[in-house]
Amino acid sequence: MLSGRQEMRYFLGSGKRGRTYLFQQQGYWFEAPINWYAKKQVWDMTPHYLDAREMPLTLPVDPGCLHCHASGAASALPDARNHYAGEPFAEGGITCAACHGDAGAHLASGGKVHMLNIDALAPVRRDSVCLNCHLEGQAGVERLGKQIEKFKPGDDLFDYTLFFVYRNENGSGGRATSQWEALLKSACKQKSGDKLTCTTCHDPHGSPAPGERVVFYRQRCIGCHNAAGFAEKHHPENPDCTECHMARPPSNDIAHEQVTDHWIKKSVSQERLPLATSGDLVTVGGMATSDRDLGLAYAQMAVRGDRAARERAMELLRRAETQSVETKKDHELHAQLGFLEQIDGKTDEATKEYKLALEADEYDALAAGDLALIEAQRHDAREAIRLWGSVFAHDPAQLKAGMNLAVTECVQGERDAAHETLDRMLVFSPDDGQAKSFAAEIRTGRQGCGQP
Fold first, then answer.
1. Confidence (pTM)
2. What digits encode the pLDDT tens for the residues 209-230?
3. In whole angstroms, how far apart are CA 159 and each of 103, 360, 450?
């Protein structure tokens, strides 16, 4: 039985849909594993952990999460994506500056200097203000040298990140944050072009009261669909346009939530949409992509078990590796290519890629952790301990590295070091059954260190 106390420092979310609570350990910030789901008025496990048998207490809070759920998100320290020098964000909630940019000059001038006029921006920059948080895709790939938390209103989002979906995806793809991908398929968007954007139908400063929603959104539809009195003649008995044309099936990726499918079809089903798991990847919005970015997107699909995606990723990343001297700085490309080579059984090639990744970023946990596994298989225990030790020292959420480190230390006869590693694991993940069991075996002598 797990017991103890932990201070929840912040929560994210207004409470309309739900809330996620944050805590920190030694400068590392984590999500609480229990969320509040407001629509159903229930406490339940965080998304993706509904079937967990152990309490997950090392769910990292990174800048990619915070830049949408808070304002003034800090950049993480280089050693771990949830390690911060101070508070992880400047202000809770979404402030004016999140959409309208820095308010310093506006405030200093007493309002005479206007803040950013979003409607005056080029369409892609205008849309980027919303899509910065309301676009997810099947895979997101940051462009080399870019960080999404550096995005500012007025920027082109696609200069920072490219988003990919399967070409054969069905509407929203079943994802809770998928409105733009589906809208791009709709006849409404295709016929309206840049004229139609998120704020055509949504007021970003507030939502209509429940009793006003049907009339509010019907007026948005009528703005385009009232030729020759169409709106008065089209099902006057049911003024809720969305009921027939915008399905609300259950989400595939967030518990207790629904997807409002923005495909806007003539007839829809409220059944859960099938989640596409294979096929050709394309960029959302038809943005041009490089071999590097497309290869990294396929690599993300490969991690989910798609063998065809693995082969495609390897082909693209190998080609990208030869195309520019900039790849020397691209730890993500080398780490992912190393991973693909390793699962293909090509350990020499994987070793080369992992070392290139670590030259570009000494804190790359994927490269260091998987290289340690190769070194252990080569019976170089000292190098494996050095690599796993570095990973776990800098990022305690890397529990597999911690466990591998403890086991290898014990096999090498370093009983005290193994105990120290296991103790640190249990500080950050006190419900880790494997760590608890191994620590007990060492303590009672059932596991003698120094014995393989």
1. 0.90
2. 989 999 999 989 888 887 767 7
3. 23, 22, 53
